[in-house]
Amino acid sequence: MSAGRLIVWRHGRTEWNLQDKIQGQADIPLDDVGVSQAQAAAARLASLAPTRLFASDLQRAAATARELAALTGLKIEYDEALREIDVDDWAGMTMAELAAIHPEAAARIRSGEPQRRGTAGETVEEVALRFSEALGRVASQGTSEDTIVVATHGLAARVGICLFLGIPQDHWPAFGGLSNCNWVSLLPSRNHRWRIEEWNAGSLPEPVMSDDPQR
Q1: Is residue 130 part of an annotated ligand binding site?
Q2: What is the pLDDT of residue 131?
Q3: What homologous superfamily is domain 5-87+122-201 in, according to CATH?
Q4: In the chain, what percentage of residues exceed pLDDT 70?
Q5: Is 11 designated active site?
Q6: Which of 52, 69, 72, 187 is most solvent-facing, going by the fewest CB within 10 Å?
Q7: Does residue 205 surpass a pLDDT of 70?
Q8: How far apart (Å, rounded) are the C-alpha atoms in residues 93 and 101?
Q9: For position 192, what pLDDT does the model report?
Q10: Which position among 11, 67, 122, 153 bears the catalytic label?
């Protein structure tokens, strides 16, 4: 059995998002705007009558999930596999600082070439596999009557969903980054696969401030 709908929801804004700093797994809280974003998005998602709620244990995702839990009474089920990509010692750098200090690495990231984040962080391929497997576990715990919400992070969600859907890696850049507190809605399809119902839903187009530099 699998869930009837999966909602993969990016956390609200943080101060580091606003400053264009790379967050990775640094445990940065929501700022005031991020809290307001989470409250507004939670009210919209609550109308879908979600039945289970999962979240990354990093506080920006956990705090976002708590706004939905407060409206629905759902217990938050935390999973470290839903964390953002590990950037190791790059955490706290701006994109401009990264390009100045590690120009070759920054160029490879922007061109979509394989590149480990930091000295001992993850590659995009590694975080995609970690997240995809976590999403598979979450989906398998539901039934066709369930709507499951997963509160998480931008880059991990984008590439993890692509791998989960079986999209070839060459096509991952065609899927834009998620704005703060927007979400992706997935529905079951034939042959035990999934399809995209909505991508980056929740608002009119907004700038994407995240560890996912597609710009």
Answers
A1: no
A2: 98
A3: Phosphoglycerate mutase-like (3.40.50.1240)
A4: 96
A5: yes
A6: 187
A7: no
A8: 10
A9: 75
A10: 11
